[in-house]
């Protein structure tokens, strides 16, 4: 039994070397939980956190496929079934060349807490592959997805494990994956979320993560009597989450001024409006181009290439009121966090998972800005996935307004749970502790109820 965070981390690092993102995610949660263990030693003696740090099951498999030239390609597939104490495993699939076991374990671990916060009955999981969809034809993506699902289908099911999208997995990939599952299982079931509207998908699912991150920012700002109206907002990424965060920001009267991809960022001081956003959606979702093309169309905007090897990104050094990191993990370094604070940002709502390094998180907390960690702020996506599962079970669809209303209510409830829990455990205003503790308690109590399994 570990008496403190250092002891736990030492063992976890020895047992799981070369998984720095997983260590980072676990360390943050372990630190938040110290006051909980002081008040409730039963969690410590039942070794709940140690059990939560060990996936219930890890699947790793070969994904062979043939490219358009007839050459054989081999990728690696994964599914981490992390925790099923409160419901079937639930979490996205990521297709990106950087995918490895440690990254998926961090994502699966975070997902357990996030899903618990949504108030819906979903356990946590995550999966994916080191396959890079960039530059691949639709036929190549289809062949890859079919091969990936041929193995994954043995392990998932509507009451067992329900994957969804993440980086590199959008509507196109979910379609190919669902088609192959249906063919192999000979069943039409809600085994994936993020499905197309004509075949079991939910309205507002594509929008949910981005909208949710903005709703969460709104809730945080209300606590200080502020609103998003007229606020200058930095947004990173230009994929699913970034696009719909921008759509909602425009609707609420804010002025989003940036977008990025892995090559660089665009700064449009006049603001990205609905017409420019429509251009970006076509560029990224249909033509699958690079964000630098934005400046070819809108000459007043500036594109700056970014260098992943330096410890800061000039995007985060622009003057603004709010920041919505919506690209990937650890995209805000310690230097970036200090730049954001120094340049007037007082609200950070994370659309991406763990986009801020630990030292950056500490800087936000010390500066007492409104900082909404990803587990809380981006939970809207999985929340609407939960609503998609509910609609599939009922064989019924809710209207757009109805789903959006439920999403808003869930984000407001998550916000209230974070605020109340942070206060109850002696750190008012600290959404990191609030989210980690509130997410933990429900899962931990369920694990205690269910015995040593
Ligand atoms: P997309 O694939 O649609 O978009 C990802 C965006 O981030 C792209 O602009 C991509 O640029 C950029 N990006 C990805 N990896 C890197 C990298 N290593 N360095 C720089 N830029 C990068 O993914 P989503 O929008 O779905 O996901 C974005 C984030 O939101 C992720 O952290 C994901 O885990 C999180 N999230 C997503 C949810 C969802 O419902 N989709 C739910 C909750 C969280 P490029 O095209 O050049 O790779």
What features would you describe in this structure?
The protein has 453 residues and is of the alpha/beta class. It folds into 2 domains: 3-187, Rossmann fold, CATH 3.40.50.10860; 208-372, Rossmann fold. The protein has helices at residues 5-15, 20-39, 41-45, 48-52, 101-117, 138-152, 171-185, 205-222, 240-251, 274-286, 293-297, 334-342, 358-367, 374-377, 380-394, 400-424, 431-449, and strands at residues 57-66, 72-83, 89-95, 124-129, 161-164, 232-235, 255-256, 258-261, 264-267, 302-305, 322-324, 347-349, 370-372. It has a 5-stranded mixed beta sheet with strand order 1-2-4-3-5, sandwiched between helices. Helix 9 (240-251) links the parallel strand 6 (232-235) and strand 7. Helix 2 packs parallel to helix 5 (101-117) and helix 8 packs across helix 15 (380-394). The radius of gyration is 21 Å and the shape is globular. The mean pLDDT is 97. It binds NADPH dihydro-nicotinamide-adenine-dinucleotide phosphate. NADPH dihydro-nicotinamide-adenine-dinucleotide phosphate is lined by residues 96, 98, 165-168, 170, 209, 237-241, 261-262, 326-328, 351-353, 378, 381.
């Amino acid at each position: 039994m570990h008496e403190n965070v250092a002891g736990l981390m030492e063992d976890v690092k020895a047992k799981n070397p070369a998984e720095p993102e997983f260590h980072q995610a676990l360390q943050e949660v372990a630190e938040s939980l110290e006051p909980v263990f002081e008040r409730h030693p039963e969690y410590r003696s039942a070794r709940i956190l140690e059990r939560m740090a060990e996936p219930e099951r890890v699947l790793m498999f070969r994904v062979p496929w043939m490219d358009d030239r007839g050459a054989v390609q081999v990728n690696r597939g994964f599914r981490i079934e992390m925790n099923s104490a409160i419901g079937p495993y639930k979490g996205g699939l990521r297709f990106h060349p950087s995918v490895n076991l440690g990254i998926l374990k961090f994502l699966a671990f975070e997902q357990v807490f996030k899903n618990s916060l949504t108030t819906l009955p979903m356990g946590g999981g995550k999966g994916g592959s080191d396959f890079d969809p960039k530059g691949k034809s639709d036929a190549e993506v289809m062949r890859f997805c079919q091969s990936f699902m041929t193995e994954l289908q043995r392990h998932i099911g509507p009451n067992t494990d329900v994957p969804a999208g993440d980086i590199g997995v959008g509507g196109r990939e979910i379609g190919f994956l669902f088609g192959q599952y249906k063919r192999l299982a000979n069943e039409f079931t809600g085994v994936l979320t993020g499905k197309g509207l004509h075949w079991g998908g939910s309205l507002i699912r594509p929008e949910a993560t981005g909208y949710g991150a903005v709703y969460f920012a709104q809730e945080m700002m209300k606590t200080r009597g502020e609103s998003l109206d007229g606020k200058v907002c930095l947004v990173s990424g230009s994929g699913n989450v970034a696009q719909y965060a921008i759509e909602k920001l425009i609707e609420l009267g804010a002025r989003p001024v940036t977008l990025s991809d892995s090559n660089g960022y665009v700064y449009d001081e006049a603001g990205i409006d609905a017409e420019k956003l429509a251009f970006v959606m076509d560029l990224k979702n249909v033509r699958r181009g690079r964000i630098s093309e934005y400046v070819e169309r809108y000459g007043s905007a500036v594109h700056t290439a970014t260098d992943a090897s330096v410890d800061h990104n000039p995007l985060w050094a622009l003057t603004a009121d709010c920041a919505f990191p919506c690209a990937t993990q650890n995209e805000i370094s310690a230097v970036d966090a200090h730049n954001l604070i120094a340049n007037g940002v007082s609200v950070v709502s994370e659309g991406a998972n763990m986009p801020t390094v630990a030292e950056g998180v500490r800087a936000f907390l010390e500066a007492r800005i409104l900082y909404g960690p990803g587990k809380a702020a981006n939970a809207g996506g999985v929340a609407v996935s939960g609503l998609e599962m509910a609609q599939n079970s009922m064989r019924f669809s809710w209207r757009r307004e109805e789903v959006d209303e439920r999403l808003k209510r869930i984000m407001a409830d998550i916000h209230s749970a974070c605020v109340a829990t942070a206060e109850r455990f002696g750190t008012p205003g600290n959404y990191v502790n609030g989210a980690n503790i509130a997410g933990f308690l429900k899962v931990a109590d369920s694990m205690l109820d269910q015995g040593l399994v």
